[in-house]
Amino acid sequence: MAIRSFLILFILFFFSSLNPILSLYEDQVGLVDWHQQYLGKVKQAVFHTHKTGRKRVVVSTEENVVASLDLGQGEIFWRHVLGSNDVIDGIDIALGKYVITLSSGGSILRAWNLPDGQMVWESSLRGPKHSKSLFLVRTNLKIEKDNIVIIFSNGRLNAVSCMDGEVLWEKDFEGESLKVQQVIQPPGSNLIYVVGFASSSLFEMYQINALNGELLKHESAAFSGGFLGEVSPVFSETVVALDSTGLILLTISFQNGKISFHQMPISNLVKDSFGPAKIIPSSVTGIFAIKMNAVTIVIRVKDESKLEVVEKTNHETSISDALSISEGQQAFALVQHASHEIHLRVKLAHNWDDNLLKESVKMDQHRGLVHKVYINNYIRTDKSYGFRALIVMEDHSLLLLQQGEIVWSREDGLASIIDVTTSELPVERDGVSVAKVEHNLFEWLKGHMLKLKGTLMLASPQDIAAIQSMRLKNSEKSKMTRDHNGFRKLLIVLTRAGKLFALHTGDGHIVWSHLLQSLQKSKVCQHPIGLNLYKWQVPHHHAMDENPSVLVIGKCGPSSDAPGALSFVDTYTGKELSSLSLVHSVAQVIPLPYTDSTEQCLHLLIDADKHAHLYPKTPEAISIFEREFSNIYWYSVEDDNGIIKGHALRGKCTGEVADEVCFDTRELWSIVFPSESEKIIATVTRKLNEVVHTQAKVIADQEVMYKYISRNLLFVATVALKGSVEIGSVTPEESWLVAYLIDTVTGRILHQVTHHGSQGPVHAVFSENWVVYHYFNLKAHRYEMSVIEIYDQSRADNKDVWKLVLGKHNLTSPISLYSRPDVITKSQSYFFTHSVKAIAVTSTTKGITSKQLLIGTIGDQVLALDKRFLDPRRTVNPTQAEKEEGIIPLTDSLPIIPQSYVTHALRVEGLRGIITVPAKLESTTLVFAHGVDLFFTQLAPSRTYDSLTDDFNYALLLITIVALLAAIFVTWTLSERKELQENWR
Amino acid sequence: MKWVEVIVSFILTLSFLSFPSCGFQSDELLVDDEEFGLEGAPQHRSPEPIPTRSPPVTSPTRKRHSDLDSDSKIQFSLDHAFGDSDFSPAGTFSARLKTWSHGGQNLLESDDFYRIRLPSNVLSPPGRDFIISSVKARCLPRESLDEHFVIHMEGVNVLAVNYGSPGSCPYPRNLKLPAKWSFSSHTVLKNSEQAPRAPVFTEEILGGENAEGEVVQPAERSFWAKYWMYLIPLGLIVMNAITQAMNMPEEQATGQVPAQGQPSAGAVQRGPSSAVRRR
Question: What range does the record give for the signal peptide (chain B) (predicted)?
């Protein structure tokens, strides 16, 4: 009997340890994955707090997101990500229930339902010419009980009904050089003023009846000085502009259709004026601001022409739009930055001297300066007016201030990630308290008893809920130390705002963030741009005590010869160790596979003049570098020219840039694509840190094929010039796509294949000896994916065992790329239903685990597709031996299995990139997908064959062992007794 | 290998004028090579480009070269440079200078790059830019200086040229001076190959989505192969039952063994139990 019970227990244990799943179960969501939603830098915000109910703010962002946020917590009620080519020009709330957005250069107007974000209507606006889009919603303008929206876009003034998006009237402004600057609607009247400049020195004013679009008056007046930039409306019939030199302020009034100019040199207003000014547009009556260099000057307009400086400050200042708080009263907010805090002042438009509100808020330095401010009012408990301000910081974060405190903040800079790298966490040191473990022992046992109950299906619903929450809140996963499996890491991300974040892979929380000094706007660097992130110091072996650090590379301005900037940041503390402004530009960065004695990685920076600069600039690094001098090759791609060039080093720099770490380069090879027939649209190389487990591939009939594994392979895709436009605008005969495999040391074209009737965009991924690319087939009207695998034939005759035994093989001989390569390629194409935003491949520590392709689909999800589906050796009827090898019968299209979506039910809105990082555990790879949203998960392409799952029931195992032991003793005593009895007989 | 290559060997000292009469056919195997031995010729992968295999694209292109060379004297000029020296003309595509007269030995000693360049457009040299290719100098010398060109063409445009030794160039490149300071050239002209078309199975388009299902399904196996794990225990139990049934009458007949302690799995268990008894 005991044996039987033990057997039952054993079977139970066996089934609980087996985990036969292909995809995720519902209760496993959130165990190893996390998802974060962001918006991007806010461009415009509109509050909706009038009615009772949920108070909200509607924002539009630079990532083309329109979203409704809870004013209380800053959570997203709803959100829509418009495409990257659908830039939002303006938003507003109409009728108290619709959010109106104008996008795509003023050609699409949409209304969204405020409570739930459903689209109510959409209308497209066309016009005679391209122009600035201006957007005006007035609730008091009514045509037959219908509120209207006034939109000026593409040279046409439209009045659109708020109810259904119907265009009620339209009026073209076709003047050749007319540039409309403002559309003004004086409150309480049915007039609209359209003001603008024509031919640089003519001021034009049109008066229009808002009810029917009738032109009432058209006046123009010339001003010999010309105009510069924007105008700022100060009264309903007065605007302020600058003359073309930027030194004279012009007050232009057009009361009763009469245009009059008043000039006022800025030097008369401000004693020490320096250089040309710029108008900061604002909508506050009677007040405008100008900016000269770093000085902001707020000017009040009295009557017609009297200008008066009310404030002059060196601090960064932002001014909000006007908020009408009661009949005829306008309030606005001024935010000024002072080292560690920001000062918020709310004033009435007509009364500068008094403040309605004055607050100072302590602000983290790593948020930078205040870029924008939006205010909203509420009635306090004592019936007075209170104000809250929504501010957008330099790092793109969004904060709500109220009563001198930060109510909530959102790190929306994470919506625009430029580059990602990873860093290991510190090793767990001795001295982790034992008491903690003992304290947890009871909890541990309790947890396992609960799990046991769950496994034996004895758990009540409460227990199940407890088990689930226990699994999700596992404190193990967000620990700040390295774990045995390498699941816990730091994701270091660089955002467009020049801020560096460290995210914990366990639960995605921000460990630290740092606004980089080198990527901040300064006198020397007006438009800094972050470029890349590299691992600078990866301590192991003899430099274990050092903290790892990363190198951030940026440059000043978009031009190719803009000087570069470097920053070195400690990844444990987030401190900027040092930063450098370079004298040379940065065209290319080559991380070299050499490290110095402190484990700093050597990096070679190539500038626009084709000089190479070595970093770090230490004598030790130079000596290491000089040893490998002749083995360094690189390539450059000139996309617009259609030229790929190979380079090598020549010697120390000569000439004026003589420097110890500067080297001259020379051109070794070049490939010139005919400009009229081929255009480079994609170049892909293998990941530098990819590990390949074995070069040999054993195929079905015990044959061996040797993969051609070279780190110097480059995949290039070119399309016909005509075919480089959008899909659908060329015929299949006019378009073709050529794929090349190029050796980047010698410039050899190893393989070249033409796909006729195909077109970009091409997305490709290169790994081991294969490349997979995705393109559009015009003939089949479908997307296609192709695979090319490249095999080394020069080693193919090493099949004989005797040769291997006797050592007569060439497997250990060094490979030189100067030898003539003997390669064969195999390729195959398949149809694929989706269009693709990004492709990546899983990577593991040792490269043993089979690979999966991670495809970012158009629906912003990540699909895992087994590489076996893209095997050029697939045939329609594989033989028995091939089937055993794992070859799938050939089909014309790749399957999309709904369960294999890595992102399960979630969407990574605006997906831009997928990054895979190997964990220490061979079976597992970490996947990070980023776009407007962030998503992280662990993936085991061949399942977790080398570890037990997290929810493995150790208690059950223990109980089984105890039961086994007990059974052994029981049966033993039983048999003893029986023996005794038999002996006595 | 679907792509077709046309292998051309050019002899250095021959002026190009000697073979316009040969036209395209002469490209197959050039002039009589008794005098120069045409080193490396036996190593050619296919010295005879079978005319049936040569694509229609290739032949006009090649023909044009020859025709043009003879008629309007347009040739690709081939320039070369030693290490960092400037490019100097090395001859036309078809005729190389006989020797590596100047600087060759120095180049071999320093194992620097030997670079060549071609115009990117055959009709209007140099086209947009020169096509450059290079090799470490020590890869070239064998008996004479062996070189191997692979020229990738696209119409009249030269896309790329791969220049190097015809065979291998193993890494520790030892200094070896050639017996003859003359070039023996081998040239391969390559055109882009066509991609295989995606297979279209009309009957399987509907079933395409179920590909995974097909994959997971193992091939049909025999009854025994499928159910052996159930059959073996079943067989054991049956055997047990039989032995027990056989034992029972035996016991009744002899009355030696007590019936009550008999385990159900008699046949199997008897061994161990007897062992225990012995102990």
Answer: 1-23
What is the rounded CA–CA span in Å between residue B120 and residue B158?
5
Is the CB of residue B225 less than 8 Å away from at least one CB of chain A? no
> If contacts are CB pairs under 8 Å, which of residues 741-780 in chain A contact chain B?
746-749, 752-756, 777, 780
Interface membership of B229 toward A (CB under 8 Å) = no
CB pairs under 8 A between A and B: 171
Cβ distance A890 to B155 less than 8 Å, yes or no, reads no
| 3-class SS shares of chain B: helix, strand, coil, % to 5 | 35, 20, 45
Are B153 and B191 in contact, with CB atoms under 8 Å apart? yes
Find the closest chain B residue to A879 by CA distance.
B219
Residue A227 pairs in a beta bridge with A243
Q: What DSSP string runs through A337-368?
A: EETTEEEEEEEETTEEEEEEEEEEEE--GGG-
pLDDT tens string A818-829: 888 888 899 999
Task: Tell me, rounded to whole angstroms, the distance of Cα A804 from its chain centroid.
Answer: 51
Give CA separation, B46 vs B50, B149, B235, in Å.
Answer: 9, 15, 66
Which string of b and e fits A711-747 if b means at least 16 CB within 10 Å? ebbbbbbbbbbbbbeebeebebeebbbbbbbbbbbbb
Reading the block at residue B138, the tokens are 């020590």
A631 touches chain B (CB under 8 A): no
Distance CA B35, CA B18 (A): 15
DSSP reduced 3-state for A453: helix
DSSP code at position A809:
-
Of A125, A165, A172, the closest CA to residue A147 belongs to: A165
- Residue A674's nearest CA partner among B220, B127, B84, B205 is B127
Rounded CA-CA distance A765/A339 in Å is 47
Q: Which of A670, A777, A830 sits opposite B131 (nearest CB)?
A: A670
| Candidates A818, A825, A880, A978, partner chain B, best to mutate (most B CBs within 10 A) | A818
Residues 947-976 of chain A whose Cβ lies under 8 A from any Cβ of chain B: 975
Q: Which of A636, A670, A741, A982 to substitute to test the interface with B, most B CBs within 10 Å?
A: A670
DSSP A456: T
Asked if A198 reaches chain B (Cβ–Cβ under 8 Å), the answer is no
A132-156 per-position pLDDT tens digit: 777 776 656 666 667 788 888 888 8
CB contact under 8 A, A979 and B277: yes
| A486 torsion bin: left (phi>0), alpha (psi -120 to 50), beta (else) | left
Pairing of strands B193-194, A749-756: parallel
- The beta-carbon neighbor of A892 closest among B133, B135, B208 is B208
| DSSP category for residue B83 | T
- ipTM, 2 decimals? 0.73
Listed in sequence order, the DSSP H helices in A404-547 are 434-455, 461-472
Minimal Cβ distance to B204: which of A672, A739, A891: A891
In DSSP terms, which residues pair with B187 in a beta bridge? B8, B149
Best mutation target among A11, A663, A671, A984 (most B Cβ atoms within 10 Å) is A671
Mean pLDDT of A338-345: 85
pTM: 0.81
Nearest CA in chain B to A889: B215
Q: Which two tokens stand for residue A354?
A: 């008094």
pLDDT single digits (tens) A425-467:
887 765 443 334 445 677 777 777 777 777 777 778 888 787 7
β-strands B157-164, B130-136: how paired?
unpaired
Residue B74 has a CB neighbour count (10 Å cut-off) of 18
Q: Who among B134, B160, B211 is closest to A895 (CB)?
A: B211
Nearest by CB to residue A674, choosing from B133, B154, B261, is B154
DSSP state of A41: S
Half-sphere exposure of A144 (CA within 13 A, CB side): 5
